[in-house]
Amino acid sequence: MKIEEYPQTGKVIHISVSGLKMKNPKSSEGFANELSHIPISEEALKKSITKLHNENGKMPDSLEMDGYSYWKKEFDKGEAGIFKVPVSEIVGLMEDHIISGNYTE
Fold this sequence. Notes:
The chain is an alpha+beta fold. Helices cover 34% and strands 29% of the residues. The protein contains 3 helices and 3 strands. The protein has a 3-stranded antiparallel β-sheet with strand order 1-2-3. Strand 1 and strand 2 form a beta hairpin. The longest helix is centred in the middle third of the chain and has 15 residues. The two termini are 19 Å apart.
């Protein structure tokens, strides 16, 4: 979705992940199929990729960018960071937080 560079973190790549089936008791279907905003380090993203799937993916809609806007506001206050683990671990962590109720959508 977006690539930025910050002195304190280096390159931050903002991605979204779709096609998931994460447990989500708050959803009427019982699962979530996407994470609309993940700020991740370049190194962690490189460890996550095995092959290029699509160079021209869909651009985020305004709802997905809301996640970025919230993150950016908190990051600028020093209260948000970036992920430094592979995407597969992030998905597992987010699913755990959703199930435990420690995550708001």
